[in-house]
Each structure stands twice: as structure tokens, then as C-alpha cells.
Amino acid sequence: MPLFDLPPIPDLPVLEEAQGYPVRRIFCVGRNYAAHAAEMGNEVPEQPFYFTKSPANMVLTGATLPYPPGTSDFHHEVELVVALGAELFRATPQDAAGAVYGYGTGLDMTRRDLQIAERKKQRPWDLGKDVEGGTVLSPLTRATDVGALTGRAITLEVDGATRQASTLDLMIHDVPHLLAHLSGFYHLRPGDLVLTGTPEGVGPVTPGMTLTGRIDGLSPVTLTLGQAA
């Protein structure tokens, strides 16, 4: 018998499916929109780079997240979420495109002050990025029901005011190339999510605000920010 029970594997609802999508790992892509890299004072990377977030820290759309400890600069980032439905290892972009199970809308909430402080010291970003409750996810839509992503709008509103507005075709590295590149370093499998980066317009939020992220043709994601715990 184990010393204690672990929480169940989290899963995401899938539109028009009775069963959920169990989440195994969460990979995130940094600086995948040129305008966002510029607003943060960073160069555009030649190759994709990644960080990870814990599935245990994900919540579903509609959640209320207490303002997290240790920060005074908590930022929103809206992102396209890609869910894998097949194994990938050292894949081509063509193979990677066929391995997508579905898409969703996500929020990568970030303790920006901690992220920047650690980055300046060339340390990992975990304190800034892997926030409890800080990965907020919409239900998935199966890829076969979505079609081409080119030109779809991606936006984020805070209390009804638009903060972020772009289109998915402005991603520096598109979904097939991201998955192919990532598969050179990991044996990707069903249950793996990839958050594909955020466009420009990121900024701070404070308790009482409501965030709504949208991508054309996908379920929206909402989050209410509560008082500090």
C-alpha cells in the first residue's frame, strides 16, 4: 500500500465525446510570435525552445484562481493548445500533422517578475511559469472537426477590454514544425499537450478581473482572478 493517495490524472473534456482526454505532460513554446518577443525585449529564436508545466497545476475554464503568492506582476498569455493523439519520435512535419488529436484554447498565467528575475540569472523559469492553477484550459475540439488553422484570430479580453489580438498564422513555427522539432528530444505520446506560444499584448492582472481567451472555431477559456490566498 502506498503511503498516501495521489490525485487522479487530470483530463480535459472533448466536445461531443463522452470520455475525457487524460493529460500526461504539458510542453510550452517560448517566444513563438515575433511581436511578443519584441515587446519583452528579446530576439526571435532561430529554433523553438520549450519549458514544461505540471499537469497537477492545470484547471479547467471557468475556474477562480487566487492571486498567487510571491509576485506583484501576474500576467496573462493566451495560447493555442495542441493535444497529441499518436506517438511521435524524430518525426517529419507531415507525420506530426497527422498525429494531432485536437485543439483548444489555453491561458499560460505567469509570475512575470519572477520569470524575468530568474532569466537574468540564467536560472530556470519554474517559479515564474509553473504556477498552481496557472494553466487554464478549454475543452478540446477534435482536429477532424477544426480544419485549417491559418488566419484564425486569437484574442484575450480582460473585463471585456481587448488586450491581445493576433492570428495563428503569425506563429514563427507552425504546429507541424513545432511537433516535429520537439519529437527530436522526446518520445511524444497521446496525452501530451503543447501550448504554442502567445502573441503580443501580455500584461498584468489583479484580483477581481475576469479573463476570456478566444480562438476562432474553438471553445473559449475563462478565468476569474480572486484575492490572494
From TrEMBL:
Q: InterPro entries recorded for this chain?
A: Fumarylacetoacetase-like_C (IPR011234), Fumarylacetoacetase_C_sf (IPR036663)
Write the Enzyme Commission number(s) for this entry.
3.7.1.20
User: Which residues does the UniProt record annotate as the domain Fumarylacetoacetase-like C-terminal?
Assistant: 26-218
Would the keyword Metal-binding be found if you checked this record's keyword annotation?
A: yes
The highest taxon in the source lineage is Bacteria
Recorded hits in PANTHER family, A to Z, give: ACYLPYRUVASE, FLUTATHIONE S-TRANSFERASE
Q: What is this protein called?
A: Fumarylpyruvate hydrolase
Q: Which organism is it from?
A: Pseudooceanicola marinus
What is the name of the gene encoding this protein?
A: nagK
